[in-house]
Design goal:
42% of the residues lie in helices and 16% in strands. With 219 residues, the protein is an alpha+beta fold. The chain folds into two domains: 120 residues, no CATH class; 84 residues. Helix 2 crosses helix 3, helix 5 packs parallel to helix 8 and helix 6 runs antiparallel to helix 8.
Amino acid sequence: MANLPKEVAAFMEKYRVGFDEVWPVPGGKAYAVKHKALERIAIEQNITFDRPSVVACDLASKSMIVCTFGKMGEKTEWSFGEASPANCKNAYFAAMCEKRSRDRVILKLLAAHGDLYSEEEADDFKRPNPHVTRASDLHDGPVSGDIPDVPAKKMLVKDARPQFAALVKEMQRIQDPIELREWGQAQAETINAFPGEWPQMFRGEYTKHLQSITQQAAE
C-alpha cells in the first residue's frame, strides 16, 4: 500500500492507525478500516452516542434498521445501519446493524466517510486474508534485500504503529534510488525492531517504492 490516497494516509497518521488495520476494498477506489480501530479512535476522541433509534425490525425475516446519533465536541452526526439477508450473512443481524450505524457516525464525525468505510459496511469489505501483514500480501515482487536483517530489540506494538507510519512517510520523500538504498541500510536496525512480520511488511513497501522511483528515473 505504498500509494495510499493522501486522505487515507493522513487519517492513519493522525489517528495512529496501523497498516494491518486498513486495506483496499473490491474495486480499489476506497479503503476499509477495522471496526476495532474505529472503536479505539472513538474513545480517544471522546465521541459519545445517544441511544440508537430502531427504525424497523422484523425478527422473522432477520431484518433491522437503526439510526445512531453521535457527538464529538460541538459536532454532531447521525447515520442509519441496515442488516438483512440481502446484505448480511452474520446470524447476529441486530449487532451488525448497530456496528454499521456507529462506525458510519464515527467516520462522519472524523470527516473520513467516503475515503474510508468500516469493515462491517458489507460482507465483501472484510479482509480476505487475515495475514495481510505479510509482505507477500502487500506486493507481487520479491522482498528487497537492500535492508540487512540485523539483530534488534523488538518494539511494543503501541510504539511501533506511529513509528512505522512516520518511517514510511520519510521513505516516500526520497526520490533517488541510490539515496533510498543508502537510507534503507541506515534504517536497518529500526526496521528490524518492528514486531512480528512488520519488518517484512516494511521491506515490501520499500521494494514497491524503489521500483516506482527507479522506473521514473529511467523515463
